[in-house]
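Listing S7. Sequence submitted for prediction.
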Amino acid sequence: MTTLKKIVLVIVSLITIIVLLNFGLNFWIDRQLPQIISENNPTPYAFTYSDLKVDLLSKNIKASHLTISPKSKSQDSLKKIGIYAKIESIEIIDFKIWDLVFSKRIKANSIKINSPEAFLYKNTENAINDSKNIGSEVVKPFEEIIVVSKMELNKGSVTFIYTKTKKPILSLKNLNLQIDGIVITDDILKQKIPFQYKTYELTADSIYYRVSNVYHLRANNFKATTENITLKKFELIPEYSRSEFVKKLDKEKDLFTLRSESIAVNAMDWGFKDDKLFFNANSVKIDQLAANIYRNKLPADDLSKKPLYSKLLRDLKFPLKLDTLAIRNSVLVYEEELNFQKGPGVLKFNNFNLTATHIQSGYGQKKLKNVNIDIDCKFMKNSPFKVNWTFNVLDKQDRFIMHGEVSNLNTNDLYQFTKPYINATTQGIFDKLKFTIKGNDINSYENASLQYHDLKVTLYKKGKPEQKNKIKSALANLILKNDSKGEEIQTKATVERVQEKSFFNFLWINIAAVLKQILI
């Protein structure tokens, strides 16, 4: 046999072996794959598909028109629990041939999930009952079938539903997700986040989350990456009307309504260390916030002690650090209502801008910088109002200093608050009110000055708020010093804090104390 013939024979033999091997592998994989994803798979879920293609040359697998549902299905729709999903296609890219041949798991570089529509039915109203359940109920079952280092999810929707009410708890629409550097081990599965990753990016056209029985939130154009979060058209909305909310209360409680055009969290780092949540961020910016705080006085007073903000931060049970909080071009409205007949008293802060720095919890800290808060706004639409407020989170006496200045305040602008709340109205101008409050958890000491003119008061009849009490109004105006005559009148006051009232009540009685001394 010539050398050429030998070479040709070797080449033909190799080609024959490769063809036979390829045919054998194809035959084996075609038999193995359905077993991996059939009813006999080691997960609590059954999988079906209409088409399955395996390309050994590119080492890719594509399955089309998949469904996922629990193997054990309840006949009672109220007991429907688990994941139900329809998926247009799944692509597994660069799978490991020999791992597939010799094991019952698919190992690959990445998986791409296209147009999934998934529903997770739950028997509680919490989106996540226990973070470790994610590992045991979601991640681990699918890790039994496939192991990848990269995952892509395109144009999907995910909805968590409370079985009893059939209402959504959490919903994301047009969801896109990419996670790189995925690592899963038995030890990692036991952690709060049951997998490790290098980077992630999640986007959704809209998000809905039922925060509690009282509130839900919505947002559009949601985007979260390893370091940043942005969203548009944020809303935190009550589930009930004001009257419904008040009927449900045993004690007084504020009702919040928040809307913002955009929120951005920058240079973020978060996660769990030793099962303890931590959150750090360089900045949070909230733009065009419209915040409404409503309180009705019909329920009984809540007589529990109200901690000041320094104590609230000091007592947080996890590490929190936020270098800068910026609220821009916003509106803050506080409404307090004695009953539904009179209507609420209203205080408004327009063109509200706030910058707070060095916000940090006291968890594990021995020394912290002072929290510094600067506020610049228009009080009751027209009056410039500036505040500087500082405190230290680790100060157990909860000492604080607040400097404030309000100018050109037409006291008639307070009509919406004074008329329903104290059954009185005022006229006249506060040209300039300056104050410095040095306080703590027990009391405060205040210096203040006021320049004003043409001040008058009108009192109304008790039980008949539409009728003026002319006699009492005349007597009040005789006592009232109606003009500072161009001078800034100086005064001092000491105020005891009412422990069961909020910080803002403490601020209000400080202002009221100096005004009483100056004007009467």
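Caption to Listing S7: primary sequence and predicted structure tokens for the chain studied. Residues 3-36 form the longest helix (34 residues). The chain is about 20% helix and 50% strand.
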